[in-house]
Amino acid sequence: MKLTRISFPRIVFSLIFLSPAYAFATEWDIVHAGKLLAIPGEKVENEKSVILKDGKVFDVRDGFIDSTSLPINEKDTIEVHDLRDNFVLPGFIDGHVHLTLYFTPKERINWVNMSDADIAIRGAKYAKETLLAGFTSVRDMGAFTEDAVYAIRDGINEGHIVGPRTFVSGHPIAINGGHGDITHSFNPAVSNALRTTGICDGAAECRKAVREQIRLKADHIKLTATAGVMSDSNAGLELQFFEDELEAIVKSAQLMGRKVAAHAHGPEGINAVLRAGANTIEHGTFLNDESIELFKSTGAYLSPTMSAFLPLMPLVDDPNSFLTESQREKAEEAVKFFNRYVRKAHKAGVKIALSTDAGVGPHGANGIEFRLLVEYGGMTPMEAIKAGTINGADNLGKLDELGSLEKGKWGDVVAVDGDPLQDISVLENVNFVMKGGKVFKNATL
Ligand SMILES: [Zn+2]
């Protein structure tokens, strides 16, 4: 076959003709912020304009500017968002949600009755509630119906449904009968029918289970290193894997560029999985001094999910609640530490990323975690905001795209009435939510 030669002027002409500036209109958004915390951890500024170009931050300028100073072409669109009476921040990031779960007394029977499609449709509702609460990015920390959670993520990315940027782990990696194996207390016929792609025993099976989640399109890997409160099993709250299994999971995930998030309550489990190289500890309830040393030497994040305690507390005290005896025993033990573990870790300088475990509690109430981090975790309001923005982005490995309103990052913007540095609880009622330059909620009008 003869190759056609293309002359240099023709290439130049083609490049100019096809370049986006000529072919497409640019979407500009100008956000007028009365008060702006563009980079959590740095100072709040008055009367600023955040300028977005095609959904990403183009510039942040003094005063309430109009479009005259922008390099605008004829076909471009410009929208001005008046938040001059509001406190404006980057979109929030929740490091631990379950968009396919909601623990009510009915949830276990739901796992039998609902199809993946039912769970995906229900999850679409939870995703929307999460976004409207100001959480523009989330890490989904495990689904027992992984098809549903991938459909939610992909549906959001395609614009078919409304939700936060969602990064998913698929099915958690768990041992047979352990936390994360939801089949263990059903009748055997039902257990066999429920899918268990993430269940493994022995290093070889665990490598395969991790690789299978990655094949199914997981963004990161979640393992249940220790037992858990809500699994109906009287196996305590400690380590459930052997060391070689932990290493197999962490290494095979990291070899394929995936971060590893480890559910862990008991100190033996926390420390073993940190030594194996996990990137985050989910919960971390009974962390000890050795855990703190390991967090600091490995640079791992603590993802403390304090919100998950809130629905548990009344259940523990109510003898008629739906908790089974083993769930109640574990919940009683864990609740005693509610006021201790985050405070201890934070004081020692452990990196903390805000997380809620939404799905254990209700979806869309994620903002409560900011207040818990201040009231029970010993953080200043600014530290809590940083935990739910900058640290969340770093934890996702997306600090170049998310977590602050800086040039080149996504235009994920929330606004509240009042000053969260004076009263952190104002973050529980956001009145404006924008994701990638698109407004999803505006209650300021
Ligand atoms: Zn969870």
Task: Summarize the topology.
Elements: H1 8-18, H2 20-23, E1 27-36, E2 45-53, E3 56-62, E4 77-90, E5 92-97, H3 107-113, H4 116-132, E6 135-140, H5 146-158, E7 165-168, H6 188-193, H7 203-215, E8 221-224, H8 243-255, E9 260-264, H9 267-275, E10 280-283, H10 289-298, E11 301-303, H11 309-317, H12 325-335, H13 341-347, E12 351-352, H14 368-375, H15 381-387, H16 390-396, E13 413-416, E14 432-435, E15 438-442
Parallel strand pairs: 1-4, 5-6, 6-7, 8-9, 9-10, 10-11, 11-12
Antiparallel strand pairs: 1-2, 2-3, 4-13, 13-14, 14-15
Helix pairs in contact: 4-5, 7-8, 9-10, 11-12, 14-15
Bound molecules: zinc ion.
Zinc ion (ZN) is lined by residues 96, 98, 141, 357.
How would you describe this protein?
It is globular, with a radius of gyration of 23 Å. Helices cover 34% and strands 20% of the residues. Mean pLDDT is 92; it is low at 1-17. The chain has 2 domains: 27-90 and 406-442, Urease, subunit C, domain 1, CATH 2.30.40.10; 92-396, TIM Barrel (Alpha-Beta Barrel), CATH 3.20.20. The strands form 3 sheets. Strands 3-2-1-4-13-14-15 form a 7-stranded mixed beta sheet, with no helix packed on it. A 5-stranded parallel beta sheet has the order 8-9-10-11-12. The chain has helices at 8-18, 20-23, 107-113, 116-132, 146-158, 188-193, 203-215, 243-255, 267-275, 289-298, 309-317, 325-335, 341-347, 368-375, 381-387, 390-396; strands at residues 27-36, 45-53, 56-62, 77-90, 92-97, 135-140, 165-168, 221-224, 260-264, 280-283, 301-303, 351-352, 413-416, 432-435, 438-442. The chain binds zinc ion. Residues 96, 98, 141, 357 line the site of zinc ion.
